[in-house]
Predict the 3D structure of the following.
Amino acid sequence: MISSGMSVPTSFTLLERVPLAEHTSIRLGGPARRLAVCADEAQVRECLDWARGEGAPVQVLGGGSNILFPDSGFAGVVLKVGIPGLEFSEESESWLVRAGAGESWDGLAAAAAARGLQGVECLSGIPGSVGATPVQNVGAYGQELADTLVSVSALDRETLETAVLDRGECGLGYRTSRFKGVDRDRWIILAITLRLRPGGRPALGYPELAAQFPGGGVPEGEAGIAAVREAVLRLRRSKSMVLDPGDPDSVSVGSFFTNPILGAEALAAFRKRVRNEGDGMAPPAFTAVGGTKIPAAWLIEKAGFPKGLRKGGVGVSSKHALALVNYGGSTAELRSLASDIQAAVLARFGVSLELEPVVVR
Ligand SMILES: Cc1cc2nc3c(=O)[nH]c(=O)nc-3n(C[C@H](O)[C@H](O)[C@H](O)COP(=O)(O)OP(=O)(O)OC[C@H]3O[C@@H](n4cnc5c(N)ncnc54)[C@H](O)[C@@H]3O)c2cc1C
């Protein structure tokens, strides 16, 4: 707890020298000098104000499933957003869901499925908090947050004013947003509002998911939403993409790299390079906004980093080449493995892989 002599803030919980590895899904990160847990907007504001007075840098944390802290930890205040609240309200043809940033995302997805509401069924099982979902516009199995997001309530860290940002103002893109890009570290998301549809057909646009329902045989209505949620959870478990204390491959941040999207010129150069390799490789490719998406997992494996590869205390998941796993190593080892993979993919295919998690320095 707080050392004597320091002005002790009253409203939020403040702890000292907290191992960040205990607050991250990949179980990495040295100590946070201070960890503040804020349960409402007033506490967030008070914490920011206090940290400013102390001259301490602030790092926002949700569930810790997409963030990588250094082994040295964080020499300021890690502000964990724990704002509760989950409200469903009926409109004429849809339902609005307003959720506090500290709620579990999968809790929201489960509650929506239980009500037969369509819109987030394919995002079932994504770990972490509601407040982080707009940060990288979470997506899976052909659905993304942008499909249902109405608005984000957020607090400006500079002015301590709150604002409601409509979906169009959030700069959402493939695994990105203004919160991860131009406005990184500017806003603290307090709550989000989604619009979901009752009785809507579940989204089965993703071939691997559709294959779980041969002949398109999804039950009608609520049962269909529940069935798709279960199928997504099943698929995710098979790839260690749900957090499971019994599954060492789930000690990760999920995908470590985003799938590269190549414009026409880059795609032609990539295809030429693959042809010149002359070993009959046939890279999968998917049409995407802005070009053609090449699965990073394919590039990683072909560049010499197969599933199950270990390097020191870290490695490539035995289930999915896109996930790097901590088997008892360090952030330094993990970053070194990631750099080796990036260098090998660039050397072999001329393609740059971007990191998906937020890296704290
Ligand atoms: C096993 C596994 C599977 C995964 N599968 C997927 C997947 O299918 N699709 C996908 O998109 N992601 C996936 N992820 C990544 C991750 O779960 C999501 O990005 C999730 O939204 C992160 O939530 P979090 O609360 O844990 O965020 P954190 O890791 O705590 O934070 C991530 C970033 O968001 C910021 N942040 C957190 N909360 C707030 C807030 N309230 N206001 C402002 N900024 C905030 C943090 O500062 C940080 O920059 C997976 C991760 C794991 C471990």
Notes: The longest strand covers residues 187-198. The chain is about 25% helix and 25% strand. The helical segments are 41-54, 105-114, 207-210, 221-238, 264-277, 296-302, 331-349.
